Automatic annotation (TrEMBL):
<protein>
    <submittedName>
        <fullName>EAL domain-containing protein</fullName>
    </submittedName>
</protein>
<feature type="domain" description="EAL">
    <location>
        <begin position="24"/>
        <end position="278"/>
    </location>
</feature>
Length: 282
């Protein structure tokens, strides 16, 4: 099932990019080399506490710096990597790189930011993932309490039982867990009662409904309230405007992320803007 699912995720935009390669096979070969040749990059997007404007942390978002000069977005190559079976290698690299970078920032700036790392369902449910992940985190020397894994709802279509087990093992050993893209695809309120999660990330589709679509905005309000009743922190993603920010703040949405603050940034720019002046509020 995972094969066809991955392919379906390729959007029209992806096919446009694919067109520029002579075939999918070429892209696959290039992707294999990308891993060996160090062409993968992590960008960092700030997350800001809505209450006081201080930085909570960063989400690590992968990009592929293709030798042809193009920066290829994850929606294009992550599904391909899942199909090809190299998502494990890529995913492990992401954990290691993101945790090492954040540990470096912690020691350099004495500022305990959280690092949020996207985990593919295929990675999460693979045989040795839990042990491998903990080894990588411990090698990076980061305090595990600063590590958050983001899991998307579509992990549930593979196996609810295995997902529950994996999340419990991660959570028992101190990793924060966040449910990404909430409300879009396979959300069931039942999961919220079963899973060991700490954070709920509301999909940007709900944020873009603010002042535009009153019914969806009511759903957004309800998700925030429900999360708080379940003691979950709420992140809004895709915050682009001052009006959206004001609205989310008035509804006590805990954490905000989006182009309003910044796009995902290369590590050096993130460092300059969010760590060198760490007392700045946003
Ligand atoms: P996501 O985890 O839901 O990440 C949020 C996406 O929204 C990112 O796209 C981010 O750049 C974009 N975004 C942030 N703020 C705004 C905004 O204000 N407006 C709009 N329109 N977009 C905004 P990106 O970086 O292209 O990543 C897309 C998806 O690829 C991610 O969605 C995640 O599912 C996946 N992904 C990214 N990095 C990794 C990774 O290291 N591993 C895995 N397995 N998946 C990854
Ligand atoms: Mg995410
Ligand atoms: Mg998301
Ligand atoms: Mg997404």
């Amino acid at each position: 099932y995972s094969k066809s699912h991955g392919k379906n995720q390729l959007t029209l935009f992806s096919f446009k990019i694919l067109d520029e390669f002579t075939s999918r096979i070429n892209l696959e070969n290039d992707l294999k080399k990308a891993v060996l040749n160090d062409e993968l990059r992590l960008y960092y997007q700030p997350q800001v506490f809505s209450a006081d404007g201080t930085v909570r942390g960063a989400e690590a978002l992968i990009r592929w710096q293709h030798p042809n000069g193009k920066l290829i977005p994850p929606n294009v190559f992550i599904p391909l990597a899942e199909d090809m079976g190299i998502i494990h290698e890529i995913g492990n690299w992401v954990i290691s790189e993101a945790c090492s970078q954040m540990h470096y920032w912690h020691t350099q700036y004495h500022f305990p930011l959280t690092i949020s790392i996207n985990i593919s369902p295929i990675q999460l449910l693979s045989e040795n993932f839990i042990d491998i992940a903990f080894n990588l985190i411990s090698e990076s020397q980061i305090d595990i309490r600063s590590v958050e894994f983001e899991i998307t709802e579509n992990v549930f279509i593979y196996s609810l039982e295995r997902t529950i087990n994996s999340l419990k093992k991660l959570s028992d050993r101190g990793i924060k867990l966040s449910l990404d893209d909430f409300g879009m695809e396979y959300s069931s309120l039942n999961y919220l009662g079963t899973l060991d999660i700490n954070v709920l990330k509301i999909d940007k589709a709900f944020v873009s409904s603010i002042m535009v679509d009153p019914r969806r905005t009511k759903i957004l309000d309800a998700i925030i309230k429900l999360s708080h009743q379940l003691n979950l922190e709420v992140v809004a993603e895709g915050v682009e405007t001052q009006r959206q920010l004001d609205y989310l703040r008035s509804k006590k949405c805990d954490i905000l992320q989006g182009y309003y603050y910044d796009k995902p940034l290369p590590s050096s720019e993130f460092e300059t803007l969010y760590l060198k002046n760490k007392d700045t509020t946003f």
